[in-house]
Design brief:
Strand content: 5-15%
Helix content: 40-55%
Number of helices: 4
Number of domains: 1
Oligomer: single chain
Largest sheet: 2 strands, antiparallel
Structural class: mainly alpha
Distance between the termini: 39 Å
Shape: globular
């Protein structure tokens, strides 16, 4: 069985687009690691994981995700659409 590991992880296309040096990329990854480890982000991920588990979509490979709406509720949505939608302002464009 082929591994589901993402071979593109850590190779963000915007790095090249922004002409980021290797040193700057390293600093950004360090910042992102620290940011992801904050209690606020851990609670956020835990909330989404709990919602995924409750709706039966956690870890089953169905390609679905829990998505925040503008009103703050959670709805089931295709992962690629959910993760691609949030642009520069990081606000949901979903109803």
């Amino acid at each position: 069985m082929k591994s589901k590991r993402n071979t593109n992880a850590g190779n963000h296309p915007s790095y090249e687009k922004l002409n980021m040096s290797a040193e700057r990329i390293k600093k950004k990854k360090e910042y992102d690691t620290e940011y992801s480890a904050t209690p606020e982000r851990k609670r956020y991920r835990a909330e989404l994981n709990a919602a995924n588990k409750k709706r039966g979509t956690y870890g089953n490979g169905d390609g679905m995700d829990m998505s925040h709406t503008k009103r703050g509720s959670l709805v089931k949505e295709i992962q690629s659409k959910n993760r691609a939608r949030n642009g520069q302002n990081k606000k949901s464009t979903k109803k």
